[in-house]
Amino acid sequence: MAGIGRGPRPRRGRSLPLNHRSKSRTPRNPPNPAPEKWKRSLVKSISYRLVIMVLDFTAIRLFTGRSDVAFGFVIVSNVYTTVAYFLHERMWNRIKWGLG
Questions:
Q1: CA torsion through residues 71, 76, 82, 85, sign
Q2: Cβ pair 29, 38 in contact under 8 A
Q3: How far apart are CA 78 and CA 74, in angstroms?
């Protein structure tokens, strides 16, 4: 009878016991860095908006076939959404919920 008296089979593909813990010197949850400075939030806002402007222009140009309509929409919508994004980022920097 195969398997009788042989003991438990070793698990394949696992070289460490199930209760093994990493001996890494770095903490599991490193301390939170300082909140973002306003300049970093501003640069992130601008770079994000540039990407969105290109995507918006491309989509609207494809749908309407008119570059002037696409350009007008991109300018108007991205002015107010950039301001809103910047204010949103600054507000969230003051909220401690979910940081640690």
A1: negative
A2: no
A3: 6
Q: How far apart are CA 45 and CA 51, in angstroms?
A: 10
For the chain, the average pLDDT equals: 80
pLDDT in tens, 24-64: 565 566 666 778 888 898 898 789 888 988 999 999 999 99
Beta strand spans in 1-100 (E): none
- What letter represents residue 68's amino acid? D
Is residue 48 within 8 Å of 40, Cβ to Cβ?
A: no
φ/ψ of 16, rounded to 5, equals -110, 145
The tokens describing 61, both together, are: 């140009």
